[in-house]
Amino acid sequence: MIPAGVVTAARVTHESGGVDDLAAASPDSQRDGVDELLSVSGIEEAYVLSTCNRVEAYVVGSDAAVGRAALEEFFATVDDDAVIDTGHDESLRHLLSVAAGLESVVLGEDQIIGQVRTAYEDARDAGGIGEMLEAAVTKAIHVGERARTETEINEGVVSLGSAATTLAARNVSLEGATALVVGAGEMGRLTARSLVDTGVDEVVVANRTVSHAEHLATEIERDSSSDIGDETETETETDAIPLSALSTVASDADVVVAATGSDEPVLESHHLERASDDESGGTADETERVIVDLGQPRDVAPAAADLSDVTVYDLDDLESITRETREQRADAAREVESMVDHEYDLLCDQYKRARADEVIAAMYASAERMKQREVETALSRLEGEEFSAEQREVVEAMADALVNQLLAPPTKSLRDAAAEDDWSTINTALQLFDPDFSNTDGPFAPPINAGASTNTGAETGTGTGTGTGAHLEATDDD
Fold this sequence. Notes:
Rossmann fold; oxidoreductase; Beta Polymerase, domain 2; about 475 residues; porphyrin biosynthesis; 3 domains; NADP; alpha/beta; EC 1.2.1.70; 4pyrrol_synth_GluRdtase
């Protein structure tokens, strides 16, 4: 059954804040974030999604005020202008939109669905997933999968890695170039594959754990070789190095894409400085080089941008690429938005059915107690009479049939009332079966205000209160 509770959420994203805001919002890990939220009194469930473009936290509490207080503390180190708060209904709808790719820097990108799923597993391992968030997050994953299989939302540039490659290609020729990818995680893998597709001669992968870099280098070399088949083209060469060897490669790379999970910059200006052409004082090679920093926090030290032959781009600079992708996918996005609306309604119905079933179960439990008491009374009066076990079963079966027939119409009425958020009917039905029933607290308390969506940052919203909660409210990356 869906327990009593209200979903509240808050987030910092690439739209509401900058790289530094995202860095300040990021927990040490998603699981640590869930643990922190669950430690707050009154928080029953928690889910944290942390990528290079967003940090989002969802909680289930007894009321909206409890959730808002917990989230305010969770994002206490972030500028208030960068934090977006949402109430129950908007939080659920937003989660579905995120998984569908509608909120991503690259509209419809594929990586977010995997990140939503990983965050779900982390939250579940930390004990943060209860019945309310179980329904919400699994619904979000379902929507994300539908969006990508039933629409063209992910056609074209599908990740920040491919967007970074597209941006680099606008500044330097990638055919025959040497590319350095710093970071061997999912974003590094996507970037490396994208670079190989452009025809670079060499891809070097640098990573703190060299074995991970070697694994990625072997993987992309194998894939590029198999793509060539029997053609005469030369496959992309690959190599793997530790971060300590960056200076030996970074200075000669035409393109560098950095995507690590480091808390500090891993690429400094001295890694990129080129030595003189000869010992007599010749000038350094001034061939233009492009550095794309996908890290959050920053992977590239700001001083690197001062080098005369280096152009450094960060996440904010990918906007031109993502804007074009967004325009190309506008029709598909409208399809996905309709899909999200439909699945959101189904989620609301799922909550309502579960809530109605909880109320109906209480009604049947009350009726069952009455039935058992009256059956036992009747049978006790027949003691001393010849009364077989078979006859006892007949009496009990008759009592069961009467209860089921009597409760069938109110059961239907309660389910209809739940669908219409008609708490008055539900409350009246409960009191008919239990005159002492209290409607002021407990699992069948009347609707509460789940809290209007508020925005201390770049967006605004209002909670309409469509009764998606347990109370039948009337109201990418490394």
